[in-house]
Amino acid sequence: MRRRALLAVLPLAVALAGGCESVPEAAGPCPTVVWHKPASTESYVEIIGDFQGWKRPGVRMEASRADGWRAVPLELPAGLTKYAILEDGVWLRDSAIGTSAFRDGHEVTLRDVSDCRLPALRVAGVGDEAAGSYVDVAYEAGAGGAPLDPSTLTAVDDTDAPVPLAVENPATATRGLLRLRVPTLAAPRPRLRIRGKDREGSEFPEIVATLWGEGQRDWRPSDSLVYQIVVDRFRGSDGRPLAAPASAGGRANGTLKGVTSAIEDGTFSHLGVGAIWLSPLYQNPEGTFLGAKDGRSYTGYHGYWPAGPRALDPHLGTEDDLRTLMRSAHRRGLRVLFDVVPNHVHAESPYATKSGWTTGKPDSCTCGVGSCDWATHTQDCWFTNYLPNLDWSNDDLAKQQTEDIRWWVETFGADGIRIDAIPMMPRAANRRIAYDLRKRFEHPGEKLWIVGENFTGPGSYSQLAYHLGPAGLDGEFHFPLLWALRSAVAAGSGPMAAIDDALVTGEKAWGEAAPTMGLIAGNHDVARFATVANGDSVTEGWTPAPTPTDPLVFTKQSLALGLVATLPGAPFLYYGDEVALPGREDPDARRVMPAEEMLSGPARDLRERFAALARFRACAPALRRGTYRALYADSERLIFAREISGSPLETVLVVATRNVVPPGTPGPAQERLDIPLPGLQAGPWVGLFGEDTVALSADLTTFRTTSWSLHLYAPRDSSLSKVCPR
Hints:
By secondary structure, the chain is an alpha+beta fold. It is globular. Among the domains are: 3-113, Immunoglobulin-like, CATH 2.60.40.10; 120-210, Immunoglobulin-like (Sandwich), CATH 2.60.40; 625-723, Golgi alpha-mannosidase II (Immunoglobulin-like), CATH 2.60.40. Helix content is 21%, strand content 26%.
């Protein structure tokens, strides 16, 4: 079977009996085989699409296999092409292909067909040697069968500077796998673009290889604590704190240079941060605009009003400033996520006036206003009358937006993206974006992280699950867990067991998608955790919340952040939460980062406790990649283990308590908790942050716990208690 035909059926290889031998032969240079299993053996099945002008009847899929599957070879054009499977007149998508588009109101398959007439090269692996790095590549000949010409291989780095390549055994390695040696480069994480030809002069499509250093190539999203930054509110160009804007909706003039200063002065390394998430960098409109619900004046300081699709907002800095930030981050092993906004644009965007590129009309359906409720109008409401929704059913718009996002990632070297407003777009949008980025940048040793913002209520697990899976997002923010944390810890109303329930229910809902969900205690769209814990949370965000002074607020914040850092997933920390920055809803939740001298002693203590835990997490495989097992949960306690299969000594035991010793209780401020802990290593376990050593037993283990606290334990012989910083 030809290479391209084989690649076409690989997604279904496991499901189909008979394997490749049963694939029909096809004439022509690049056959693509489409498979479908109809509901009935009597069904009439046909395929229509771009390749035949969408005419009926289409290409008939005859019943010929005992297992019910039908297959037909098609001559599909190279590149992105659309088609639909019609089963008894019902339009269906190809179940083997994750990407889709639209035709005459129907969602149809969008398939990327490679041109088998051309040679192809793919990255098979990357690594380091004493003299530098290497890229292993696999070569596939084109239709003429010509071998690779090693002398034509060239590479450039992120700055378009040539990078010399030394081909191992060039005389013999003209087919199959070969190694390209790369000298030590000055760039901390070079992303190489490699080109070349075969011996007949046919050029293969350019490939990309990213060369992280040792210890970074096996990275997973759960490995990094992510620090969320609203750039305008973080630091000024001189690295100093910002003054609050004259109006809460105005600009505070934070810049990319300010973020770079925090990278270089060790702020993030001290906090155990492994990645930073920057608010949108697009050019936003000048001036102020009225909010849809409150009629107050807002600027585009936050970045979520894209007006220049490929222009950096000059208020944040220059392109050189952004490149400097990226180099500084990568030099320290920090990954950087860009925030992208493919759902809407500002009315001043050139896309807003292109025919057919937007949907709806100003003021016809404003999200959450009047009869335009979020539940039934999620995909057709506008945030406000100057933020038109983009029409992802328009092929030209979908292509442009996908290319724009790739441009940002490639031009500035982002390591992943956070996609805004996921449920407001058809699922086809985020899947197309994800496919495009993965095809371009991912290879063994390089993972591009794609996380989505799907704002849900406490129980909306199915809404989150819908956008996950191999063709979808790597993860989303776990909003049900956010609400469980806020109810149990900030408000002290819901049970601690609800935290475990949110995790377990979510795992069942995600199923085989197995995403890495983003764990949050807060973000830029909700009132600050400290303000909720202080009892000051109201929906109106223009009256500043008071700075908390009650020690219990800081204790609650420490417990919540500790759970975010120890539960399974990727922990995110909203800037300022490490010092219990207060804030009601937007815009108060987006205050400027306070100066060090403005912080209280409890705020500094909170930051140091969390920083110690986060640095420990970065060293502890069980907290980053271990499985989760709940051991005990009730209204006031949650006890769980994070475990690495086959490594019982590397287990971390987490004991989280709420109001176990109510204020005013006579006697010591400790609770004695006697519980069985089956399945854990028996013997002495060391408290990792000053807790007493406990003797673990499957039958009965005694803990001395305090209210509103988080305790971590590991076996005394564990390397965690000897190697990892605390």
